[in-house]
Amino acid sequence: MLPEAGSLWLLKLLRDIQLAQFYWPILEELNVTRPEHFDFVKPEDLDSIGMGRPAQRRLSEALKRLRSGPKSKNWVYKILGGLAPEHKEPTLPSQGPPHVPEPEGGLKCLIPEGAVCRRELLGSGCFGVVHRGLWTLPSGKSVPVAVKSLRVGPEGPVGAELGDFLREVSVMMNLEHPHVLRLHGLILGQPLQMVMELAPLGSLHARLTAPAPTPPLPVALLFLFLRQLAGAMAYLGARGLVHRDLATRNLLLASTSTIKVADFGLVRPLSGARGRYVMGGPRPIPYAWCAPESLRHGAFSSASDVWMFGVTLWEMFSGGEEPWAGVPPYLILQRLEDRARLPRPPLCSRTLYSLALRCWAPHPADRPSFTHVEGLLQEAWPTEGCCVRDVTEPGALRMEPGDPITVIEGSPDSTIWKGQNGRTFKVGSFPASAVTLADAGGLPATRPVHRGTPARGDQHPGSIDGDRKKANLWDVPPARGQRRNVPLERMKGGTECAWSHPPGVPGSTGSHQGRCGFSHPEPQGKASPGQVWWLMSVIPALWEA
Question: N or C: which terminal CB in the chain sees fewer CB atoms within 10 Å?
Fold first, then answer.
């Protein structure tokens, strides 16, 4: 019999009787993980998930056949049908390995164990370890890959780890987007292994926190990454999925100018009229990135992913700092419900910070959708310019004629603007007359830089109401009386204690290292001519240090 957390037998059973749409409701709402669990499922329970009586009869007959049929001794073969794409049911032949299509063909496939050679360890998590590998295709071509292996005990893979691993496989095998990590295939062996694309540049968080002499990432490149991320999250939302673990540690650099969303271990389907997923019990979640309704009620939705997008934006423009550093996890919810918000990072313009504040609206319905976020990002996009004279005044951003300049903050009635020098990557203030904007026809900058409005709450970064009270976000307020409702978990340690990965390993909050990376070529979004020439001039230098 399949181990308790292995639920793909259920998916195969439902596919065979054309009821696959009830897979997630049965698994998540009725908590069915073994065939014998159906003994406790009443017709009223199936009615509650929308399954009609004729469909219930088909399910009952299929369960009878399942229980009376022969049982395989090897649990691996029980998930073959469940993991295969619906249009193709692969089986293992008695002689020789199964046919493996080229990865460029866009097909997920079963991969013979001997076709992949594992090399050095890249990272480790709760239920798997990741190695760099080399996949030899039937044509003889070798493809660099990352191989994620399920940890196994003496008696094989059991428990929640197997369920999480198989859930991640079932999610990834149906995703195809230029900025979403791609699954090549699955190795059905001992242990189970996922074969994924490789990104040799690692996680975005590792790049943001890289020590000198590695230069910081330019502001314009961070905006490009934000646009790619918003597009990927809009894609996941359109497929009815909530990520629940959006952070820079789970954004992988496929190239110097391309990120991919990774780590789908916490992804869940959205269900019901409200499009939500509600946790069935206490499980570790990344507190510092979660929306208030997730911390209070365990409720996740596309709107909670938008909240996490705002925190990820804050990470990117603060150089990879930890959100709510020093604040115990059990106090984060109290701070959020008191309307405290993360402060505006130095690299973040008022317009972009206004977008972040909209992502952190207290009520989920007030947050923008990811499609709307893409438009707001375009409004906040910084203006590119070129230095036309030496700037050597004390306290000013040093620049020379010809230096590419990204204008972070400026207005038509101000003579001093703030920006980043694309040659030195330094950030500071400078005379507006020293810069010619890329789309101004060679004239000195005299117009507004940003089309959006300043952040309403920028006068006081700790409040979205824009009040002028003084406050220090990093001072924990005095403890209040016990609330009527309590968060899902009261964690007494630091922020890393509320994380789902052990501290000190890649993918954990404690170490702030991303998990292994993966790469796949894809088309990029459109950019203005000013953005193009600026990025082309500075990106090569970033990766030589």
Answer: C
Amino acid at 364: P
Give dist(CA 374, CA 400) in Å, integer. Answer: 34
The pLDDT of residue 153 = 57
Q: What angle do CA 45, 46, 52 make, to 5 degrees?
A: 145
Highest mean pLDDT out of 112-126, 364-378, 496-510? 364-378
Closest CA to 291 of 336, 338, 325, 246: 336
Whether 276 contacts 301, CB under 8 Å:
yes
- Cβ-contact 275, 241 below 8 angstroms: no
Q: Tokens 């220090």 — which residue? A: 472
Cα separation, 5 vs 118, whole angstroms: 27
Q: What is the DSSP letter of 226?
A: H
Length in residues, the chain: 545
H helix runs in 23-83, sequence order: 23-24, 43-48, 53-68, 80-83
The C-alpha atoms of residue 128 and residue 125 are separated, in whole angstroms, by 5
12/87 Cα distance (integer angstroms): 13
The residues that bridge with 418 in the sheet, in sequence order, are 409, 429
Contact 400, 492 (CB under 8 A): no
Cα 293 to Cα 297: distance, rounded to the nearest angstrom: 6
Task: Give residue 162's pLDDT.
Answer: 80
Answer whether residue 20 shows pLDDT above 80: yes
Place of tokens 């590792």: 206
Using alpha carbons only, how large is the chain's radius of gyration in Å? 26
Torsion, CA 471, CA 476, CA 480, CA 482, rounded to 10: 140
Cβ-proximal residues to 478 (8 Å cutoff; 6+ apart), any chain: none
Q: Which residue has the higher pLDDT, 137 or 462?
A: 137
The pLDDT score that the predictor gives to residue 488 is: 43
At 431, is the secondary structure helix, strand, or coil? strand
Tokens found for residue 67? 């229980």
Cα 469 to Cα 295, 332, 339, 463: the distances in Å are 27, 20, 13, 9
Give 66's DSSP letter: H
DSSP string, 317-374: HTTSPPTTTTS-HHHHHHHHHTT--PPPPTT--HHHHHHHHHHT-SSGGGSPPHHHHH
Which residue, 80, 351, 320, is CA-closest to 202?
A: 320
Give catalytic residue positions.
Answer: 245
E strand map for 358-484: 383-387, 404-409, 416-421, 427-431, 435-437
Residue of 327 and 191 predicted with greater confidence: 327
* Two structure tokens written together for 167: 């859930």
Claim: this prediction has a pTM higher than 0.85: no
* Pairwise CA distance, residues 122 & 514, whole Å: 10
Q: Is the pLDDT of residue 421 over 60?
A: yes
Distance CA 66, CA 35 (A): 8
